[in-house]
Amino acid sequence: MVRTQMKLIIYTDGASRGNPGPAAYGFTIQDENGKLLYEEGKYIGVTTNNVAEYTAVLEVLKHVTKHAREKFAQEKLQVELYADSKLVAEQLSGRYKIKAKHLKPIIEQIQKLAIEVGGIIFSHVPRSQNTQADRLANQALDNKLR
Q1: Contact 25, 45 (CB under 8 A)
Q2: CA–CA distance, 26 with 53 (Å, rounded to integer)
Q3: CA 12, CA 25: separation in Å to the nearest integer?
Q4: What sign does the dihedral 101-112-81-91 (CA atoms) show?
Q5: Cβ within 8 Å of residue 116, ≥6 positions away
Q6: Total H helices, total E strands in the chain
Q7: First to last CA, the chain
Q8: Would you give per-residue pLDDT tens digits along the chain (146 residues)?
Q9: How many C-beta atoms lie closer than 10 Å to residue 93's C-beta?
Q10: Beta bridge partners of 49
Q11: Total domain count, the chain
Q12: CATH number of the domain enclosing 13
């Protein structure tokens, strides 16, 4: 059986108003042609912006491991994840050390899911290239705070 390759392009963002304050995350999943496959924005309570950023990554990887593996079982999955948080991209790629103890449990969960997915390329993008995930996070906040 020939295995084909499926490429997923993911954008994530977290938002906190007050830092700590009301917080939410947003993410999008696209195929290699830019077709939107799934998007989500969700309020997560009062927390810091860093926790919201990492929660976005964790939640999208939960979604991918649950749904994409079922849908693309015969295909090799290639995942590229983009975040406008340089800290998130650099820590998850292993280029920066993780110093904040409260983030380590979230990051450990992310690392386990990344292995399950088959590896992920984590990259930083400017905020201007992350508008959809940003919109979803802020929309979730706005909806909760109305």
Answers
A1: no
A2: 9
A3: 7
A4: positive
A5: 65, 69
A6: 5, 5
A7: 53
A8: 555 778 999 999 999 999 899 999 999 999 999 999 999 999 999 999 999 999 999 999 999 999 866 666 656 789 999 999 999 999 999 999 999 999 999 999 999 999 988 889 999 999 999 999 999 999 999 999 88
A9: 14
A10: none
A11: 1
A12: 3.30.420.10
CA nearest neighbour of 110 among 47, 63, 69, 73: 63
3-class state of residue 43 by DSSP: strand
CA distance linking residue 103 with residue 133, whole number of Å: 21
Q: Which domain holds residue 131?
A: 4-145
CA nearest neighbour of 16 among 145, 104, 146: 145
Contact present, 145 and 15 (Cβ < 8 Å) = no
